[in-house]
From TrEMBL:
This is Probable desaturase protein. One of its GO terms (biological process) is lipid biosynthetic process. The keyword Hydrolase does not apply. It holds the Pfam family FA_hydroxylase. The lineage of its organism: Bacteria, Pseudomonadati, Pseudomonadota, Alphaproteobacteria, Hyphomicrobiales.
Amino acid sequence: MDDLKFGTRNKRGDWAPNQPAETAPLFAFPLRLMAILKWLPHYFFPWNTIFAASAVAYWAWVIPPVETMQTLDIGWIAWLYAVNAICVLLFYGAFEVHLYVLKRQENRFKYNGKFPSEQKNKAFWFERQNVDNMLRTFLSGVTIWTAIEAAMLWAFANGYAPWLSFAEHPWTLALVALVVPIIHEFHFFCIHRLIHTPFLYKWVHSVHHNSVNPSPWSSLSMHPVEHLLYLGTAFYHLILPSNPILMLYQLHYAGFGAIPGHVGFDKVEIGRGKLIDSHAYAHYLHHKYFEVNYGDALIPLDKWFGTWHDGSAEGEAQMQERYRRRKEKLAARKARLEVGEAAE
């Protein structure tokens, strides 16, 4: 597959798509009906369908009986941890092996031309990005994921969360299922802006941003506080009219859904001549520039708050202009402080 039909590569080997990143047309005004209809299949396939199917599979084959979940017991919680760990290992590992170990598509469609394994960095445990990212994923990420999952299932089993049946409330639950990605986007943008405040960035979010050149294992490589905030998206189902399967879908959308934004490739080659879009470009630009694209472009929150970067020359100019204005404000504030100190 010739990736230069879809983008360009610079002298460093970094690839960028010809088309700038776009926000979904769902919340564009005035509404563009044809654009929404054309985009709609991408809302479901392939990623959202995969995460929804995994939630159904969990409920069918993994989640214990309701009577068991009424009591928080180490047995069934340890079982959940084991299944979550195995599923993360298989799902994340499949992308890692395909793209980074076997390098089956070499650096075609890869945003950053270098592979993390080629470089040591003291920011990581053992100076290895993959080792660091994997340890953080399993020691903290999957642990907190399982704790939230167990707490929510316990809440449903004991009547502390509104549990509607699909047989009696099909349309209500269908609506909740449809907005699961929107809930995630809103939650992610809010907590992401929060952890980019100076104090929380230094002590919490910088762990995730050590992976400037993200790879699959970077997806859930976070500080424990960020894991709690990020995976806490499941807690919305304590107040929504919902169902445990939809709560699992919400949790899987966050846990497994972190992969597409961190694979480091714009497209994944599947078979001969078949491509799957990762839709990772907007989030890759966040890892590259840090202060843009706090959301995933489903809701145009970054456009509304002036932090959108689409990867184009115009987007770069807008970002540099934001930096310039901020530096001017900081310089002016510093000057006022110095004048005040001199007057004293």
